[in-house]
Amino acid sequence: MKTLKKVILPVTASALLLGACGNSATDSKEDTIISSKAGDVKVEDVMNKIGDEQIANSSFSILLNKLLADKYKDEVNTKDIDKEVEKEQKQYGGKDQFESMLKQQKMSLGDYKEQKKLQAYQKELLNDKVDISDKEIKEDTKKGSHILIKVKENKDDKEGLSDKDAKAKAEKIQKQVEKDPDKFDEIAKKESMDKSSAKKDGSLGYVIKGQMEDKFEKALFKLKEGSISDVVKTDYGYHIIKADKQDDFDKEKGKLKSQLIQSKVQKEPKLLTDAYKELLDEYKVDYKDRDIKKAIEDSILDPEKIKQQQQQQQQQQMMQQSGAGMSTGQ
Known about the structure:
Helix 5 packs across helix 6 (95-104). This protein is α+β, with helices and mostly antiparallel strands. It contains 16 helices and eight strands. Among the domains are: 50-129, no CATH class; 142-249, Roll (Chitinase A, domain 3). The two termini are 36 Å apart.
């Protein structure tokens, strides 16, 4: 059993901005950062300018990283994360281009690595706190493939077909694969207009409930392993869907569990805030500033606030990625 450690949350502006320690919250706010003939700039002035919520977010992020790194240091291999980031850099065209992309998001390479590590630690926390059985994993996941015949979005769309032609082509393909299911992969690679999955013989891998458009998802989850659907129409066009064999389920189970936990937490943010609260209690976290404590409790530890933030993020994603891909952005 791990030894409980008392952690002092450095929530005063002097601790955050200057790295000072040993001052009380009241005294530290009176500290002068810059003096001039026109007047002094005090810590309290900076705190008021930045705002309690922003300071609370930064403080909590630093604290959470410390707590999770201590609790899960044996479960998370940070060297693997560094290698993963190096791989991402190569895929993006090199370190310079990758850092340029991060800069546009107001993030340094170091920040990005820390974010990845925090995500890995948080994943371990949620795996500990959110219970999902093998039965739930089997019920809420399905391995599938599809062939998509796109419908033109407008007259200038060169990729899709007219609704009439797309439907006719999909129906023709459906009859072919229903007659000879072994040809599904070959036909998917040749005919599917979903380029990403076509490269993989139409494979979508494991689909999590809530990940796909409703009509598609319902059709897939109704299918028995190895069977093929009738033509299914969605906003993207016409699909022929196949339920694939799940012979690698045991190998993929851990990854699927993590994805389901993320999905569950998005629907029930209280699972996350409760996990945070238990962690804070375990490490006997002591807040030194009442205003920052209140800001943390009213935002980061408030499940309703998290729901609102998720909705805002989803709206932004929908605006940025309108019409792109089949995923609903979960």
